[in-house]
Design goal:
This protein is α+β, with helices and mostly antiparallel strands and 342 residues long. It has 8 helices and 20 strands. The strands form 4 sheets. It has an 8-stranded mixed sheet with strand order 6-7-5-15-16-17-14-18. Strands 9-2-1-13-20-19 form a 6-stranded mixed sheet. It has a 3-stranded antiparallel sheet with strand order 3-8-4. Strand 15 and strand 16 form a beta hairpin. The structure holds flavin-adenine dinucleotide.
Length: 342
């Protein structure tokens, strides 16, 4: 089939990779360039936190999350970066005065899915064996199933792959005004396709009801004095931070969560909170270099869950909120299996 996709962010790319495997011909539209940074998928830390995200999410994300974890390796292989996937588990810790936060967190997860009772409580010596740099923390939990995708590498490699593919035409810097019934409209023109997908994230808010943005801010730090190898969260009564390691002692530190569609640069308050928290977690961050400060908005629906909507010759996928990497492969698989586009 001749298929049009509006929005080549995270969902648009995962869709495109799946549809190419099925032998379709694709036309992609994005208001950004192929290597631009407007997509939330470019800002994301890429954590596959199938348990930890349950603290503030419905348990349905657990099944989708586990399915996505199974699907990511093939997608990354398809774009030539199998090594951008890591599933070595993650660490959840807190300062001693906040241990009640830690206990409450684990109890919440157990309440949501029985599998959470397998999450392992580590004492200091077990923690040091896994992550010697976290030695100052006497108590932590280890979630072996969790991992991460290097989000920025995925975005770059998928751009390279799609741009080079003979069955893909990519219209860059084209703002789509409408997606409906086999049509993608832009600049007063409409093109028709056998099927169209609307994957514009927050950009679809004129056609998707109750879609809102949830602002998130992250730092990238280069910290040669820190050697943490797994995604690590620190719980705190006022803010929760995560540290996601990337190659060469680079760390993504995030993320704020603010009910706002403001994509302007990071606020002083957010930077103070994120940096103080990360420094309190490991003093080696004192001499880290700030290499990037990013802000974006997560496309979110009322129930904070993803939504697939099929119409005549059209499918919309939206609402991946803070779980795009965790959920997109499974949500796309579900959309394509159930879709009548075949
Ligand atoms: C700070 C932050 C950290 C995050 N960390 C994680 C994480 O660790 N793990 C995780 O699972 N998820 C994470 N996420 C969430 C994840 O990034 C999103 O859920 C995901 O990117 C949503 O995918 P999407 O394709 O719907 O939207 P996007 O990735 O935003 O893509 C939408 C695309 O549509 C294009 N577009 C918009 N409007 C138009 C238009 N009118 N015409 C043409 N093109 C248009 C945009 O340019 C963009 O390329 C994070 C998000 C943020 C902001």
């Amino acid at each position: 089939m001749n298929i049009g996709i509006a929005g080549v962010g995270l969902v648009g790319r995962v869709l495109a990779l799946n549809l190419l495997r099925e032998g379709h011909t694709l036309t992609l539209f994005d208001e950004d360039t192929a290597y631009g940074d407007k997509a939330a998928g470019m800002t994301a830390a890429g954590m596959l936190a199938v348990f930890a995200e349950l603290e503030s999410a419905e348990s349905v994300i657990f099944d989708h999350g586990n399915r996505s974890i199974a699907l990511w390796p093939d997608l990354l292989e398809q774009v030539g970066i199998a090594d951008a996937y890591q599933q070595e588990g993650s660490i959840i810790t807190a300062h001693p005065q906040d241990y009640n936060e830690l206990d409450h967190f684990i109890e919440t997860l157990k309440f949501k899915v029985p599998e959470a009772s397998e999450i392992k409580l580590l004492d200091r010596s077990e923690l040091i064996q896994l992550e010697p740099d976290l030695e100052q923390h006497a108590k932590a939990f280890f979630i072996p199933q969790e991992g991460q995708v290097d989000a920025q590498r995925f975005m770059k490699a998928s751009s390279d792959y799609l741009l080079a593919h003979p069955d893909v035409k990519w219209h860059q810097k084209i703002k789509v005004s409408e997606v409906s019934e086999g049509k993608i409209c832009f600049a007063g023109l409409c093109e028709t396709y056998d099927w169209v997908f609307d994957a514009r994230g927050l950009g679809a808010n004129d056609q998707v009801e109750n879609l809102r943005g949830v602002r998130g801010e992250v730092f990238w730090l280069d910290a040669p004095e820190v050697n943490i190898t797994r995604p690590t969260r620190m719980l705190h009564p006022r803010y929760k931070i995560y540290i996601v390691p990337r190659p060469n002692n680079r760390y993504v530190i995030g993320a704020t969560e603010i009910e706002s569609e403001d994509k302007s640069p990071m606020s002083v308050r957010s930077s103070l909170e994120l940096l103080s928290a990360v420094y309190s977690m490991h003093s080696g961050f004192a001499e880290a270099r700030i290499v990037n400060m990013l802000t974006n908005c997560r496309p979110t629906l009322k129930d904070n869950l993803p939504k697939i909507e099929h119409g005549t010759k059209m499918t919309r996928i939206n609402g991946l909120y803070r779980h795009g990497y965790l959920l997109a492969p499974a949500v796309v698989e579900q959309a394509l299996n159930k879709g009548i586009y075949k």
